[in-house]
Amino acid sequence: MKSKIVSYIIFVLLVSCTHHNNKTQDRKGRSIYTMRQVEYKRFPLDENTTQNTNYTQMCIINGKVCFSLFNPAKYNILVYDFDAETLIDSIQLFKEGPDNVGNAAQGFLICSIDSIYVYDQWLGMIYQVNHKGNVVKKIDIGKKIVQSNIDCTIAPVIFPQTNSPIDIVNGNLILQGMSGNIRDCERPVCTTTLLYNFKNDVVSLINPYPEIYGEHKNIREKWGTFSYRQTHYTLDKKRTKMIVDFPADDCIIIYDLKTGGYERIFAGYSVKDVIKVADIKTRASIDEQYYGQTQYVGIYYDEYNDLYYRLVLHPLNDYDLSNRETLAKKASVIILDSNFRKVGEYDVPERLQGRYAKTFVSKDGLHINCLSEDDDYLKFITLNPVKL
Amino acid sequence: MKKIFLISFTAIAVTVVGVLNVSLAQNKIEGTSVSLGSGEALSACEVSSNASDNEGYCERNYEDTADVCTKGGSSSVCCSGNL
């Protein structure tokens, strides 16, 4: 039965992605929206906090809209009043002792101030902690995968980032990442999402790589790690569908969490780029694969305007690996309506280098992390949609 | 003569250490440097002297500012964790 399901999934994904009305792909789409840059969003950082946070997330605590970030230097989670841009709370995590959450925390989810899930990407563990950082629950995700014994469907290497957040939908914990270790398998299917069901204590593996990635047994050898393998997602308005963004694919995948159905829809940049694999054994080849090609790096649902934003980076023609200033890439935002039809495209005025994984949507717009010249602030480019 | 040399050396050493500490405290922006250029080691990953502990692969995370040691990477640089 499982092999039939897998075969069906592969069949669906081998079909070229469709425009939602089945017409010939129109890369440009309609021009209904653009964006405009408004004032930067800034959050103050104290002497113990640098701009090098690896995870941020919007949250609601006691009815207040908050912004939270992980501070690796102090191993704590900082919580800000989003509107006032002031620090209001912190949750200390521990690397050692009875309340340790490992020492490779990568991602968290604040459900309430006394219920925070933290993922350790080295141990493959989920910890639920309270406001004091006491561990109240542990879930060994790696063990759950083994217990589930899911044939040649390969679990992802889970790597939550702001653009691939930890979330809970309908009693399922969503953990997103990239293709995992291939077992001895003739035709493995590499998935990118792990769902952990709290009630049944089991995992499901979904959202396999699309056709452009070629044979799944070769994905790790051909596509690098954080260049094209790491995937991103958002949820729709009703939180019943995952919209998954694959860095090498013009299309996005819509996965229905209720029915288990997949749909592929074109959501690519107006100018096509042929994205190629690399020889990942050499550093230079991986760098060239990343810097010299188009890359899709996130998709975000804007509940305030009922739009989706897909962030795309453009290739660099002239760069010097030893000069950081030449490595910033031009970027655009592809704007989709609630039916995933392309309704606009906007060129981000500033070049982006690193940091863009920390992008999120608020009532104030789309926020993209950028390097602040003032080390005492975490800074975000802020874009608002504008109807033409 | 020996005393003068010892005092001078100590004074210089204390000064150097003091300057270093001030520099590190002021350098908030990039806590870890990322080496660039092919062939150079990625600097934010731990490498254990015990080879069997180096289960991970050190990769540059282009989407963010840090190198990351993960068990699911694909480079040849092995690591045992993150700094």
Q: How would you describe what is shown here?
A:
The complex is a heterodimer of chains A (388) and B (83). Helix content of chain A is 9%, strand content 42%. Chain A has four helices and 26 strands. Chain A is globular. Residues 1-5 and 19-24 of chain A have low confidence and may be disordered. A three-stranded antiparallel β-sheet of chain B has the order 3-2-4, with no helix packed on it. Chain B is an alpha+beta fold and 83 residues long. Mean pLDDT of chain B is 67; it is low at 17-27 and 29-41. In chain B, 30% of the residues lie in helices and 18% in strands. Classes of the chains: A mainly beta (388), B alpha+beta (83).
Give start-end ranges of low-pLDDT stretches of chain B: 17-27, 29-41
Oligomer: heterodimer
Structural category of chain A is: mainly beta
Q: Report mean pLDDT of chain B, rounded to a whole number.
A: 67
Low-confidence segments of chain A = 1-5, 19-24
Labels describing this entry:
heterodimer; A: 388 residues; mainly beta; six-stranded mixed beta sheet; four-stranded antiparallel beta sheet; 26 strands; globular; disordered N terminus; B: 83 residues; alpha+beta; three-stranded antiparallel beta sheet; two-stranded antiparallel ribbon; 1 helix; 5 strands; 30% helix; elongated
